[in-house]
């Protein structure tokens, strides 16, 4: 092994909650901050809040109610729905009893959910609404061990008369009666829990196969949460918007774990469709989003500016040049000439501050992105307009944190240095490994994968290729299994290339190919919102994604973006040979329902390569067109076939003395 680096653990910041389980932390917060807001939810356009004291009472009634209908220590309770206070309370109530919550991705179909529900051996489920209840009833037909279904929103469920289907209110009413009959039960159950107990099982997104159940203890999550709070000086006064899937470890740590440890308030949006509106209304101080969210927001900004008047467009472009020149240095507190500072200050008054306000970023002290690499250009855009955006590198198996970016040491091409208490080393084959307080206990019912991922002395294989630079900062190249070489020996890092393509608002998704090939080629998905806006402005009629993707002007625009990426790649000696020689615009959007993306919207690279093998081979032939027929899933669940003749476009490359020759 080589490149060892470590960071010492951080002491807990003053004012943090006391307790080695989340139920104990909740009772501590109710005692010390009982009248302060703990969580809120927007419903019918109105924000409703619950204090820490009120949350403790809600959880007490629910825990006793769950005990009354049979939930016991060691049982698993599945939780599915959008971010809702009652769903978070269910996690805590289950943990009071020593049961284990298993959050599910709410947009998964029943066939996807059935694997997780059965593998986790869930006996209970808390479902948000009728849609989710129906999925669970479907699963129960083949998995009768799913004994009890509880729902939050009663709309549409009035005529569901099964005795095993209960409303949230009815379970709490049972709990209050149970609590009155067993007055010492709740406090005894809370006291029985310990830091080494299983807190939650979070299933991976299944990029390369069936999801794995990652078992995390209270110690894993609480120690990691406290270290992150200390590192970033988070306070009890922070405001957080909880909108990411509850089944994802990022939401669990930021919206649940750190809230219980630091005592700050978490807000749940009205719906997934109103997130950006609620974000602007709330104005969070601490914000987390995966790169795709920041990409989507940037796309929205670009569309609005294209729709703006000529004067505003010119002002925006002028001051964005100023921001690109000195904005990140000003944010980092580095020396900047007075003239540039004054121009930037004027730009802040006219452009940057109004833009931050429109996006809901006016009060943000700290924003993080993670989940996969963010394009450097996108990262610099947000920092240049005054948003303190940082990258972290993490995983479910780490309880999130592996590396963090310290203030003043924030670079777009690194993911920072080891998080507090975490050690990092790079194996001889270039794979990044770590160990620390957040290292997962095991993969549930999968000792072989546990042994393959975690060594006997606690080191975890990440599967990512990277290296530590001279300053001890980690640079991630790509997934180790995805990094390859072209036939000329040049490095091929597909994710890096794809992220550069996705900087352009017209490109939503990209999949690059090149390992053991003569050159790099790519599939591209257009962004329907961005390109559709262009079509409206230019009176271009279209009836579908496919028709818009085939438009010759759209093809020319995408070609210009690909060639801009090639120009950038030509400047890097390591990646110059990875310039994209040929590409095609796919006839449909890559979709989780069609298995092409995970539920966290990561490309299932192997699946896509197999499904579209004929298209990949066409990119490496002399063809300039290829016919394709693909089954796809429509929004209403129906299946259909889409047919298309796709054009293969030759892209200009730079810095090569001879053009690459195509095969056969």
Proportion in helices? 25-40%
Largest sheet: 5 strands, antiparallel
* CATH C-level category of the largest domain: Alpha Beta
CATH architecture of the largest domain: 3-Layer(aba) Sandwich
Q: What is the strand content?
A: 15-25%
Q: What name goes with the CATH superfamily of the largest domain?
A: ANL, N-terminal domain
Rounded mean pLDDT is 90
The unreliable regions are 1-14, 657-664
Distance between the termini: 43 Å
Our count of helices gives: 21
Tally of domains? 3
Please state how the strands of the largest beta sheet are arranged side by side. Answer: 1-18-19-21-22
Write the layout of secondary structure elements.
Blueprint: E1 2-6, H1 22-32, E2 37-43, E3 46-51, H2 52-68, E4 76-80, H3 85-96, E5 100-104, H4 110-119, E6 122-127, H5 130-142, E7 148-151, E8 165-167, H6 168-181, H7 185-192, E9 198-203, E10 213-217, H8 218-232, E11 239-241, H9 249-262, E12 265-268, H10 275-282, E13 286-288, H11 291-307, H12 310-331, H13 338-359, E14 366-369, H14 376-384, E15 389-395, E16 400-404, E17 417-418, E18 423-426, E19 431-435, E20 442-443, H15 447-453, E21 460-468, E22 474-479, E23 484-485, E24 491-492, H16 494-502, E25 507-513, E26 520-526, H17 528-537, H18 545-549, H19 552-570, E27 580-585, H20 605-611, H21 613-619, E28 625-633, E29 639-647, E30 649-650
Parallel strand pairs: 2-12, 4-5, 4-6, 6-7, 7-8, 11-12, 13-14, 14-15, 26-27
Antiparallel strand pairs: 1-18, 2-3, 9-10, 10-20, 15-16, 16-17, 18-19, 19-21, 21-22, 23-24, 25-26, 27-30, 28-29
């Amino acid at each position: 092994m080589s490149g060892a680096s470590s960071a010492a653990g951080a002491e807990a910041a003053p004012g943090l909650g006391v307790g080695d389980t989340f139920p104990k932390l909740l009772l501590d917060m109710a005692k010390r901050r009982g009248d302060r807001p703990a969580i809120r939810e927007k419903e019918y356009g109105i924000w409703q809040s619950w204090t820490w004291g009120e949350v403790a009472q809600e959880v007490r009634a629910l825990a006793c109610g769950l005990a009354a209908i049979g939930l016991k220590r060691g049982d698993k309770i599945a939780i599915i729905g959008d971010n809702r206070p009652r769903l978070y309370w269910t996690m805590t109530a289950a943990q009071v009893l020593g049961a284990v919550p298993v959050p599910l991705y709410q947009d998964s179909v029943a066939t996807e959910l059935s694997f997780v529900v059965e593998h986790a051996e869930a006996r209970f489920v808390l479902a948000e609404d009728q849609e989710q209840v129906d999925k669970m009833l479907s699963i129960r037909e083949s998995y009768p061990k799913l004994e009890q279904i509880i729902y939050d929103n009663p709309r549409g469920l009035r005529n569901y008369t099964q005795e095993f289907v209960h409303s949230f209110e009815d379970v709490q009413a049972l709990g209050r009666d149970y609590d009155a009959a067993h007055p010492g039960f709740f406090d005894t159950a809370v006291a029985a829990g310990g830091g080494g107990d299983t807190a939650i099982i979070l299933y991976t997104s299944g990029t390369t196969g069936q999801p794995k159940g990652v078992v995390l203890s209270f110690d894993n999550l609480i120690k990691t949460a406290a270290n992150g709070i200390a590192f970033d000086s988070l306070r009890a006064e922070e405001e957080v918007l909880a909108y990411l899937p509850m089944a994802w470890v990022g939401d669990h740590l930021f919206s649940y774990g750190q809230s219980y440890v630091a005592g700050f308030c978490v807000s749940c949006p009205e719906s997934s469709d109103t997130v950006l509106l609620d974000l602007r209304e709330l104005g969070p101080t601490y914000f987390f989003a995966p790169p795709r969210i920041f990409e989507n927001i940037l796309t929205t900004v670009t569309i609005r500016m294209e729709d703006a008047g000529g004067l505003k467009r010119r002002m925006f472009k002028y001051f964005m040049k100023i921001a690109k020149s000195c904005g990140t240095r000003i944010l980092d507190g580095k020396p900047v000439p007075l003239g540039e500072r004054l121009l930037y200050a004027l730009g802040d008054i006219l452009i940057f501050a109004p833009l931050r306000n429109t996006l809901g970023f006016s009060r943000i002290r700290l924003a993080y992105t993670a989940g996969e690499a963010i394009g450097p250009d996108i990262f610099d855009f947000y920092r240049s307009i005054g948003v303190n955006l940082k990258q972290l590198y993490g995983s479910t198996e780490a309880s999130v944190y592996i590396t963090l970016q310290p203030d003043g040491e924030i670079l777009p091409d690194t993911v920072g240095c080891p998080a507090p208490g975490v050690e990092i080393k790079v194996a001889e084959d270039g794979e990044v490994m770590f160990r620390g307080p957040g290292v997962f206990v095991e993969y549930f019912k999968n000792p072989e994968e546990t042994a393959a991922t975690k060594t006997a002395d606690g080191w975890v294989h990440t599967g990512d290729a990277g290296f530590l630079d001279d300053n001890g900062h980690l640079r991630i190249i790509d997934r180790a299994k995805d990094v390859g070489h072209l036939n000329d020996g040049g490095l091929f890092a597909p994710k890096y290339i794809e992220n550069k393509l996705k900087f352009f608002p017209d490109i939503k998704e990209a999949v690059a190919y090149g390992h053991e090939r003569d050159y790099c080629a790519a599939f591209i998905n257009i962004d329907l919102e961005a390109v559709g806006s262009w079509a409206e402005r230019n009176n271009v009629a279209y009836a579908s994604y496919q028709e818009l993707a085939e438009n010759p002007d759209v093809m020319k625009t995408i070609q210009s973006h690909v060639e801009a990426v090639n120009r950038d790649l030509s400047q890097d000696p390591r990646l110059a040979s990875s310039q994209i020689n040929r590409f095609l615009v796919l006839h449909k959007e890559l979709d989780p329902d069609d298995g092409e993306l995970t539920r966290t919207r990561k490309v299932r690279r192997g699946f896509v390569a197999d499904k579209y093998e004929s298209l990949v081979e066409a990119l490496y032939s002399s063809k300039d067109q290829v016919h394709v027929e693909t089954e796809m899933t429509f929004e209403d669940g129906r299946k259909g076939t889409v047919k298309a003749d796709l054009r293969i476009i030759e892209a200009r490359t730079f810095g090569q003395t001879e053009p690459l020759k195509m095969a056969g």
